[in-house]
Description:
Strand content: under 5%
Structural class: mainly alpha
Amino acid sequence: xxxxxxxxxxxxxxxxxxxxxxxxxxxxxxxxxxxxxxxxxxxxxxxxxxxxxxxxxxxxxxxxxxxxxxxxxxxxxxxxxxxx
Length: 84
């Protein structure tokens, strides 16, 4: 029997690369990065990796929720860029 974390990874990959939480430039990654750098919430992702190509900003409700999940996770458990 697969562990919950492994099931989640499979489901995210089946939905599309934007839901792969390990994809540099994916929705979760961008949400957590925006939180880390204290940027405002602006749901987006990069299909070709962060800052490669054009950011996708026209998102479904499910995609927006995935972005917010990354942002919220970093707000609660992550850290922030020290600008000093």
